[in-house]
């Protein structure tokens, strides 16, 4: 998107919007000179973008040439927020939604039929290490979404919008699952006599170390086998962790619950 002369608009700089903006600034995926930020309150990352040449809350007439409009507001607020900008958006502006649970057809209707690409990114986009699932019924809109997120995330394209619920449950929610497991691991270490500080540091560092091991295409079973020798300490822990399939069932239940909630929110 950088350098094409048509602005990218980011509406909303909450937790996810801030992460996306940080990733763009760090990688140059969007030239700050081509960036317009709409935010009702002052945000440090928006000010950092302003310092690099972005426009923050300019007159809405500035949206007339926008190539992409990224909805970074909460799902409950998007339609209300759209009313303010609609009269000023270019007719061919691509609407980029990072909202869970709101269907592309619904968003397109709210934006007077403009093409929509749905993106489900993780907050790791702030460090250009995110994951982003993309779907669109429009090839050009999908291309715009890819250009915005491929520099800051590993992207996965879906051919069925209904699968966004499952993708949200796995990657959108997944970081919280890993953090919860890491917390439980730290608490278990503390129960075995480690100090709270040592247990937390070990658990967090182990999460980072394990994440480094998944780069590449090596099978997940092979990664487990690399650590867990037959009859060894790690294998003993794994057997206890998944006794009678307890771990598998817990994770399956978590994903099913998230899928159900995402489906409920989409109506």
Automatic annotation (TrEMBL):
EC number: 1.5.1.2
Gene3D superfamilies found in the cross-reference section: NAD(P)-binding Rossmann-like Domain (3.40.50.720), ProC C-terminal domain-like (1.10.3730.10)
Keyword terms: Amino-acid biosynthesis, Cytoplasm, NADP, Oxidoreductase, Proline biosynthesis
Domain Pyrroline-5-carboxylate reductase dimerisation: residue ranges: 161-265
Catalytic activity: L-proline + NADP(+) = (S)-1-pyrroline-5-carboxylate + NADPH + 2 H(+); L-proline + NAD(+) = (S)-1-pyrroline-5-carboxylate + NADH + 2 H(+)
Annotated metabolic or biological route of this protein: Amino-acid biosynthesis; L-proline biosynthesis; L-proline from L-glutamate 5-semialdehyde: step 1/1
Pyrroline-5-carboxylate reductase catalytic N-terminal domain: residues covered: 10-101
Pfam families attached to this UniProt entry: F420_oxidored (PF03807), P5CR_dimer (PF14748)
Localization per record: Cytoplasm
PROSITE patterns to which the protein is assigned, alphabetical: P5CR
Broad class of the protein's primary localization: cytoplasm
Database matches in InterPro entries: 6-PGluconate_DH-like_C_sf (IPR008927), NAD(P)-bd_dom_sf (IPR036291), P5C_Rdtase_cat_N (IPR028939), P5CR-like_CS (IPR053790), P5CR_dimer (IPR029036), Pyrroline-COOH_reductase (IPR000304)
Summary of the function given for this chain in its UniProt record: Catalyzes the reduction of 1-pyrroline-5-carboxylate (PCA) to L-proline.
Family: Belongs to the pyrroline-5-carboxylate reductase family.
Protein name: Pyrroline-5-carboxylate reductase
């Amino acid at each position: 998107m950088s350098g094409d002369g048509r602005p990218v608009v980011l509406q909303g700089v909450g937790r996810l919007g801030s992460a996306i903006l940080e990733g763009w600034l760090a990688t140059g995926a969007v030239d700050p000179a081509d960036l317009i930020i709409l935010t009702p309150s002052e945000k440090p990352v928006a000010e950092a973008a302003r310092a690099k040449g972005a426009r923050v809350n300019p007159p809405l007439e500035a949206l007339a040439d926008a190539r992409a409009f990224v909805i970074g507001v909460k799902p409950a607020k998007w339609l209300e927020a759209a009313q303010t900008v609609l009269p000023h958006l270019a007719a061919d502006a691509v609407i980029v939604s990072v909202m869970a649970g709101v269907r592309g057809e619904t968003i397109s209707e709210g934006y007077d039929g403009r093409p929509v690409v749905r993106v489900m990114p993780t907050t790791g986009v702030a460090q250009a290490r995110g994951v982003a699932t993309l779907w669109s019924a429009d090839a050009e809109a999908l291309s715009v979404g890819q250009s915005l997120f491929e520099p800051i995330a590993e992207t996965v394209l879906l051919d069925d919008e209904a699968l966004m619920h499952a993708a949200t449950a796995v990657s959108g929610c997944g970081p919280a699952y890993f953090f919860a497991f890491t917390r439980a691991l730290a608490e278990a270490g503390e129960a075995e006599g480690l100090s709270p500080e040592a247990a937390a540091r070990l658990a967090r560092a182990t999460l980072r170390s394990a994440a480094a091991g998944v780069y590449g295409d090596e099978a997940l079973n092979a990664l487990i086998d690399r650590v867990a020798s037959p009859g060894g300490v790690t294998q003993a822990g794994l057997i206890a962790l998944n006794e009678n399939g307890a771990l598998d069932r817990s994770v399956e239940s978590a994903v099913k619950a998230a899928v159900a909630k995402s489906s409920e929110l989409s109506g």
